[in-house]
Amino acid sequence: MIRETALGATVAILVVLLWQGVNVGPLLFLVAMFAFLSYLMQSRSGGTTVNFTMVDRENNCETVIFESIGGQETAKKELLEALDFVRFPERVAKMGIRPLKGILLVGPPGTGKTLLAKAAAAYTDSVFLAASGSEFIELYAGVGAQRIRQLFSRAKTAAEKERKNSAIIFIDEIEILGGKRGTHTSHHEYDQTLNQLLVEMDGMATDDRIRTLLIGATNRADLLDSALLRPGRFDRIVQVDLPDLAARREILQLHVSNKPLAPDVDLEKVARETFGFSGAHLESVANEAAILAMREGAEKITQRHFTDAVDKVIMGEKLERKPDKEELWRVAVHEIGHAIASECQRPGSVSTVTTTSRGKALGYMRQSPEKDSYLYTQKYLEGQIAIMVAGAAAEEAVLGDRSTGAINDYRQAVKAAKQIIAAGMSRLGVISPEDVPTEAMHAEIQRIIAAEQEKVRTFFSNCDDLIRELAEILVHEEKISGDLIRRRLEEEKILVA
């Protein structure tokens, strides 16, 4: 508005001067030079204004509500309680409660933090402005601080224009602008931007006609400055964690609601096989399953499509490259070794074994977790190490030597051994891993892995014929189920732990 008024006044003055016969050439030259220099300054600094994303919910068909977000019941409950301070200000004032100024959503990528923020705007009938932390950081000092002021000012202006009583500002990846002060090379600009954010949050007066709530999202809360996290700024920190079994089933149900499913589809089984998946991963599984069905010309999505979709999300697309006959035989022996060891450690754990190349793997054995586990015993970790080294042990038992295919297996075994040591479950006792000499740590890792490796070698020396038999089936079929392996183990009367 100010810019248009100034432009109109300038034109009017020029018209008057021309009418009076004044030479306006030098004045026009100065105006043009000023405009050109202003353009250059904004171009070099990335511009002093940013078009922050504003969601028009009245004309937006993709309105997000809490009911459309699967899982995250704890996060939704805590967020809804905080949002009631915005939605019912009279009740809050009656109880003498200070409204919250900021809510921080913390959790891994893909868990639905942005969706929760959008649902918060719908629930409170607020104007919703979204920005990323990277939009506020520039080389030139003062630009980021100005953009912070613009964001808060625009939120209030937009709310007044739409006749709303509240506005929600959402800043994703807030750790970029809210990081600990003094930790950046060009710390002056970072610190100035953060200081301006702190000032704006302190200025959220509780009696403002437009109630403003700031929602931040991050997966690195440890990087945030302590001044930002204190009460009175981000008053509430909401954990948005990876979904558990029940939540994964609910999320899958939401994502397949518009997809034609065959009668054999078991979402409970899919949810059980996707431990550690985020909501974004589960959406990708449902989408990939539909793509696979369409690629085959099938009218409905079957359980097999979901199984292949899980493999694709974990490992990547199938590769065209095919190992030669000798390599294929070694891969089959290797993967059968993993599978037999897994069944001996935990019966029913093997889902499928395949020699199909995906990502960087020439083959793989996929386990089905019996339940979601967040704590691991020493016995469990040692069993996992045995499974990891079983592939190389099977190669030794059948082929007489090992290959480089076990590199990643040993990396994972070392990681599990370090967990045992860090938890005080090794011969070193309770220690500080950072203070243990490298030689002592290395020797203990070797001892733990070598012990499990010897157990597996001894076991495989008595069942190398079974490994060969199952490997031959795998080479011929390319993929076999865990049921076949379990049946053969029972027929051979091999005891399982």
Task: Give a written overview of the molecule.
- It is a single chain.
- This protein is an alpha/beta fold and 497 residues long.
- The protein folds into four domains: 2-44; 53-239, 3-Layer(aba) Sandwich (Rossmann fold); 245-315, Helicase, Ruva Protein, domain 3 (Orthogonal Bundle), CATH 1.10.8; 325-491, Methane Monooxygenase Hydroxylase, Chain G, domain 1.
- Helix content is 53%, strand content 9%.
- It has a six-stranded mixed beta sheet with strand order 1-3-4-5-2-6, sandwiched between helices. A three-stranded antiparallel beta sheet has the order 8-7-9.
- Helix 6 (143-161) links the parallel strand 3 (127-132) and strand 4 (166-172).
- It starts with a helix and ends in a 6-residue tail after the last helix.
- The model is unreliable at 43-50 and 55-61 (pLDDT under 50).
Q: DSSP strand (E) fraction? A: 5-15%
Task: Note the main sheet.
Answer: 6 strands, mixed
Structural class: alpha/beta
**What global shape is seen?**
elongated
Gyration radius over CA: 31 Å
Please bin the fraction of helical residues. 40-55%
Give me the count of strands: 9
Strand order of the largest sheet: 1-3-4-5-2-6
CATH fold description of the largest domain: Rossmann fold
Which CATH C-level class of the largest domain is it?
Answer: Alpha Beta
Q: Residue ranges: pLDDT <50 for 5 or more in a row? A: 43-50, 55-61
Please state the second-level CATH architecture of the largest domain: 3-Layer(aba) Sandwich
| Strand and helix order | HHEHHEHEHEHEHEHHHHHEEHHHHEH
**Number of H/I helices:** 18
